[in-house]
Design a protein that fits this description.
Layout lengths: L1 H8 L4 H16 L2 H13 L1 H7 L6 H7 L7 H10 L13 H7 L2 H7 L2 H6 L7 H6 L3 H7 L1 H24 L11 E5 L5 H9 L4 E6 L1 H4 L11 E4 L11 E5 L7 H14 L9 E5 L2 E2 L5 H17 L5 E2 H12 L2
Parallel strand pairs: 1-2, 1-4, 2-3, 4-5, 6-7
Helix pairs in contact: 2-12, 2-16, 6-16, 7-12, 11-12, 12-13, 15-17
């Protein structure tokens, strides 16, 4: 077993091994999406459609044969993509709050209705909204226990990722920074990690009022808390952190957010000003386990939000358009 592990991971640095483990855990915790996708394909009659087409059918052939609304083609693509064979997962470091949230009925139930959502009309609502009658943010804001569950999940992920970023190869990202704003930073786990590792960095957590109000009072001794809508205002700082923010928004909204960030950066890029983006980009890795996890994440994000993980080609387009601002 030890030889197999050495052959599989080689002599990777500790933080890379942890990141690999977290990716494998994410793949495991999102594994139900493949089952739901299979059920969706069965309910839609995908196998019968392929059989009627002589055993071979393109995505557009399937879309037409299933009589789905034109706006559902991208989602059908995601469903079919995750049904392809992928590498099996091993074990990962515990991220219990995140895993529990991803496997909660709040997140899982909409995935059982993918076929019904695909058969519905246009793109006015997500599968999550169709099932729960309200979006993810609305569900979390109207039910404090759900909001707390979500915040705990995001905080667990932030602590894990920031620990590797700060203590691993990403530490140099924080060089020469004296102030940082964690944009849509939730309960501030990421900002507190930075403040603890770099006491000279003045850290601010920016989020909606109901999120900031849920943060324990003693956390304000370490970081500054700011209740504001990021689309309206972002305070000036040397660096801005966007951790798992952009995948929740359309390209157009991402550009608005990044424009606000660009306005808030005090020094120029050459002088050390920076926007730190941590997010999922589909196709950013050639490893099968990473690709499979990215695709599952993209599918589930599309169930709950009117967006999806940033595709590499869309990221390139986004970078180009931002450069023209």
């Amino acid at each position: 077993m030890e030889k197999e592990q050495q052959a599989g991971h080689g002599k990777l640095p500790h933080e890379q091994l942890l990141l690999q483990a977290s990716t494998e855990l994410m793949n495991l915790s999102l594994g139900y999406a493949r089952s739901m996708a299979l059920g969706c394909a069965a309910k839609l009659g995908v196998a019968d459609a392929i059989h009627r087409a002589g055993g071979r059918a393109t995505l557009h052939d399937l879309h037409a044969a299933l009589s789905l609304h034109p706006t559902k083609l991208p989602f059908l693509r995601r469903v079919m993509r995750v049904l392809s064979p992928r590498a099996s997962s091993r074990r990962g470091r515990s991220l219990l709050p995140l895993v529990l949230f991803q496997l909660s009925p709040l997140c899982v139930t909409p995935a059982t209705s993918m076929a019904e959502w695909l058969r519905s009309g246009g793109e006015e609502e997500t599968a999550f909204e169709m099932v729960h009658g309200v979006g993810l943010w609305g569900a979390c804001s109207r039910a404090p226990d759900l909001g707390e569950h979500f915040n705990d999940a995001m905080a667990a992920d932030s602590r894990f990722i920031m620990d590797m970023a700060i203590n691993g190869s990403g530490r140099q990202v924080f060089d020469k920074i004296t102030s940082m704003v964690d944009v849509a930073g939730g309960t501030g786990a990421a900002a507190r990690a930075v403040a603890a590792a770099f006491p000279h960095i003045k850290c601010t957590v920016l989020d909606l009022p109901h999120v900031i109000d849920s943060i324990p009072a003693d956390h304000g001794d370490v970081v500054q808390l700011l209740q504001v809508i990021m689309m309206d205002f972002i305070p000036k700082a040397d660096a801005l952190l966007l951790k798992f923010v952009l995948h929740d928004w359309s390209d157009e909204d991402c550009i608005k957010i990044l424009k606000r960030c660009k306005e808030a950066i005090i020094p120029s890029r050459a002088a050390g000003g920076k926007i730190i983006i941590l997010d999922v980009v589909v196709g950013s890795s050639s490893e099968a386990i990473c690709q499979g996890t990215q695709q599952l994440f993209d599918l589930i994000i599309s169930v709950t939000r009117k967006s999806g993980a940033r595709y590499s080609r869309r990221q390139d387009s986004l970078n180009t358009r931002l450069a023209q601002c």
